[in-house]
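Complex record, two chains
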Amino acid sequence: EVQLMESGGGLVQPGGSLRLSCAASGFTFRSNWMHWVRQAPGKGLVWVSRINRDGSNTAYADSVKGRFTISRDNAKNTLYLQMNSLRAEDAAVYFCTRDPGNYLDYWGQGTLVTVSS
Amino acid sequence: QSALTQPASVSGSPGQSITISCTGTSSDIGGYNYVSWYQQHPGKVPKLLIYDVTNRPSGVSNRFSGSKSGNTASLTVSGLQAEDEADYYCSSYASSSTLVFGGGTKLTVL
């Protein structure tokens, strides 16, 4: 059974940093592109970032470019999202998702990031 | 990276059919056959309904179908049931292997 389990969310002050993790199991992690998607409370889904199979190619939404860094450790079956210079508008549930081919077939339960002083 | 355009809400009675539109540009929907649709019930994780414009994953009801014409994709839900009441999101592949979502459509079953 495919499982994606996010962790690392929490309360952080504006300008602060957080690192999200996503532990993957039940499939060959190194064979899949992976994405982060976020959803602010009561709002819609927003694509954040993606990474290719070996981590050599990444892409970001304009709103997080230069502040967020996606990475992966295929030996640990884990996806990461390093978030720096956090803003109030970054507050959201962050979902880790699997990409078998330009769509997202499995989603984690999400981890909540709150940005507030 | 502009969001795709969806109607904020649609509604229909049980047994009827509804269609949700999703409009993009030639840089996303119009340029690739990589449109997907997701259903999200309140407090739940999004669920994949349609991928590659028309394909349904195993286990998804055949009451859900997708199509595309030019820069606009559509999701049709036939034989509406109470359990279909949820938020629906379209998504498309865009340049440089990025994705873009629509703003979401709330489906109400009357």
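Note: The mean pLDDT of chain A is 97.
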